[in-house]
User: Fold this.
Amino acid sequence: MKKLVVVTGGTGFIGSHTAVELMEAGYDVLIIDDLSNSRIEVLDGIERITGRKPLFEKFDLCDRVKVTECFKKYTGIAAIIHFAAHKAVPESMDKPLMYYENNLLSLINLLRAMKEYGVKYFVFSSSCTVYGQPDTLPVTEKSPIKKAASPYGNTKQISEEIIQDVVSAGDPIQAISLRYFNPIGAHPTAYIGELPIGIPLNLVPYLTQTAIGIREELQVFGDDYNTPDGSAIRDYINVVDLSRAHVVSIDRLLAGKNKSALEIFNLGTGNGLSVFEIINSFEKATGIKVKYQVVGRREGDIEKVWADTSLANNELGWKAVIPLEETLRSAWKWEQYIRQENNG
Ligand code: UD1
Assistant:
């Protein structure tokens, strides 16, 4: 019998790609999503890729009664991957309570239900935002946690603390927290990808929307950073590579190979790239010129961050392998596909 993995936020960007990788690795998947920032059609995309539809429940994880009902209904949940969360940094500055309530309550409800129904294994979707602007680069998992620059970032820090406290209290939960750097790209089939609602906040969706003509020009936020070309540097990782790390983490927990009750891994490529380098690589990969303009720095942005990935490489036996140009081509293919779908 296939093992059942719950993927919360499974119709979202990283969640949907992870659902695909899990199903292709032989797991059954139950997606829980309230569709507050994603579309039900994502399930069709997953089916087109894998040939199977994942199980699906639509509800808000802040509703404790619904969470309990779900755990009652699906006996035999082997593990949970928890993606569902609000993630827009500026919105979190405007609506901090909404972020604390949603991101923390959903986590607490899940952990409670896991305890009550004897589900042991938990993978948490964390972020490199917990490091702030690191003093030394690349950042390792031992780099100090800095005061969060936004309520969003703070919810990720607090969430990791909650998980640590729960496992330290002797609950039989075994967890892995994955700190993502900058996930980009889309599935090579282009049946699933990143679909921001409204104006994109992140670089690559804004870039592809500019390339296709929905946005007039890309704004480059700052060219006066202390970096070789003056623009800010991030560690951009292909979403499929990232998703595979979740499958490896689930395999590891189920096989009892984890070395502590909460393990933490950076997920990045280990390479830092500037905004200009991303624009140039996109142009090279697709042959399309992108109109851009340099504007002032964006509030809350850090100058540079990239990952030391040796722990994930050595312990998980996982490595990001998809080349950047292929990643950018996949983002472009997805942008074209989704516009055609919407117009057709
Ligand atoms: C941010 C968060 C990260 C969060 C992620 C989720 C911080 C420090 N990081 O990542 O924790 O998980 O969002 O969405 O808050 N840029 C432009 N023009 C644009 C958009 C972006 O020049 O139109 C630049 C930014 O200034 C930055 C880089 O591109 O240097 C990447 O930006 P973005 O894709 O928004 O990701 P982060 O801000 O790194």
